[in-house]
Amino acid sequence: xxxxxxxxxxxxxxYVSILLFVGLGxxxxxxxxxxxTADLQSPKKWQDIRWWATALITLQLGIYIVF
Amino acid sequence: MHxxxxxxxxxxxxxxxxxxxxxxxxxxxxxxxFLAGRSLTWWVIGLSIIGSNIDTNSYVGASGxxxxxxIAQANFEWIGAIPAMILASLIFIPLYxxxxxxxxxEYLGLRYNQSxxxxxxxxxxxxxxxxxxxxxxxxxxxxxxxxGWPIWMSILVSGAVVGLYSITGxxxxxxxxxxxxxxxxxxxxxxxxxxxxxxxxxxxxxxAELTKDNPDxxxxxxxxxxxxxxxxxxILGLGIVLSPAYWIASQAILQRxxxxxxxxxxxxxxxxxxFAKTFVPLLIIFPGLxxxxxxxxxxxxxxxxxxxxxxxxxxxxxxLMFVAVIAALQSSLDSSINATSLMVTRDIRHVLIKQHDxxxxxxxxxxxxxxxxxSAMAIAPFISDLGGIFMFLQTGLSLxxxxxxxxxxxxxxxxxxxxxAGLWTLISGVIIxxxxxxxxxxxxxxxxxxxxxxxxxxxxxxxxxxxxxxxELTTLTYRPFMRRSNS
Lengths: 67, 487
Prior knowledge:
heterodimer; A: mainly alpha; B: 487 residues; mainly alpha; Sodium/glucose cotransporter; 2 domains
C-alpha cells in the first residue's frame, strides 16, 4: 500500500487536503450551538465559534488551492 | 552588538520579570498555581498556546528546513495543526473542562484507570525534563553567539529569569509572559517579512526569484516518494495522528485552557490560537526562504535565520528579533516546567503516595518546579553527550503518540472503550510501534500504522472486558446530542 501511495502525484495532496477541510467544515456545523455556548448567559453572534472555525477553514482552503 | 540592541534586550528581560512577579501576587493555593485560579481570558490563553508551541527549534530548525524544502515545511503549521486545533476547541476542551480535571493524564485516569494515568504522566514527564535541558542548551548557545557569554553563565542567568516568575507565579505568570513574548515574536516576524519583500521589489519578484532555481519551494506538497516529506505521509502521519496527538493530548499546551474563566473562553482560546498559527509561517518559514532568495553565503541550512537577523534587520530591530528568539524559548520552557510540575505533583504523587496531603500541593508544586528547573540546568551543558539518551526518549515519546491518541479518541467519543482494554492497548500499541522502528518505513507511516492498530485493538478488546457505568461515562464522553434531564 505504501508503494502505491508513493506513486501518486503531488497535486493529489492538495485535493485530499481540500476534501479534508470541507469535511471538517461540515462536521463543525453538526455540533449544536448549545454545546459551544453552554455556560454563557446570553451568547452573542460573534461568540458562536463555529463561525471562527469556518473562517479558519476558508483560509486553509485558500492556502491549499493556491500553493 | 549595537548599544540600542542591548537596551532592547535588557528592557525585555526587566519587563518579563515585572509582569511575571506582578501576577505572582495572586497565587494563594494549588488551583491558582496550576490553573491560574481558573481566571484566564481567551486571548491571553490563545497567545500563550502559540508561545508554548513555538520554541527555538521551530525558529532555527523550521527556517533551515524551509531553506532546504520550501513552504512544504509550513504543513506543520497548517494541515499539521489547524484541523486538530479545531477538534480540540470544539470537542476535547469542553470535555476536559466538564470533567473538571487538572491534566490530560487525570482525564485518562478517570476514563480508564490509575495505571494509565501514571504511565502517561511518567513518560511525558521524563521526556519533558530532557526536552527542558535541550531548550536550556539552545538558549545558552544563542546567548553565547550574540552576547559572548560563557555557556554556564547563560544557563544560570536564563534559568534564574525563567525560574523567578514561573516558580512564584505559576500558570498565570506563564500565560501573561507568554502573551507578551508572542506579541514580540509577531511584531519581529512581520517586520522581517516587510523589509524582505520590499528589498526584493514586491512579492511577485520574490516568488519569481525563489522558484527560478527551486521550482518546488512554493509547493505545499512534495512528491510522494520524497525522503524527508512525502505528501501521503504528511497527511496520514502528521495530519491524522501526530498533530491530533499533540493538540489533544499535550499537557503543556492544554493546561492553560483548563485555567480559563469559562468553558467558552477555553474553547475560543484554541480557535484564536489556530488563527495565529495560520500566520506562524511568516515568522519561521519566511526567513529561510528569504535567505535563499538573497543568496545567503551559509554552509548549513540552520544558519538561515541568524543570517537574516544579522544582515536584513537594522540595529534595534535585530536586538528585538534576538529577544523574540529568547522569548520563544522561555515561553516553551516555563510552560513545560509548570505542566510537568503539575503531573508529578498530582498524577504521580497523588496516585503512588497514598498518604499525600492535597493542602500541600502548592508547596510541593513549587519545589518540584525548582527541582525540574535545576535538573534541566544541570543536564543542559552535557546535552551533546546525552544525545543518545535524548534520541531514545524522543523515539519513546513518538512510539507512545499513536496509542495515546487512540485512547483519547475512543475514550472521549465512544462509551465502548473499557479500562482494561485501554491499559493493554497502550502497552501493546507501544510494542507494535517499537517493532515498526526496525522497518524502513518513514516515521509518519509508523505513527499512522500504530494508531490504526491501537484503534482496532481497543475496539476489539473492549468487547470482552467490563466498562464503566453509564453514570460514570456521563461527564467523560462527548455526547452533545444527548437530552439533558431537567432535574
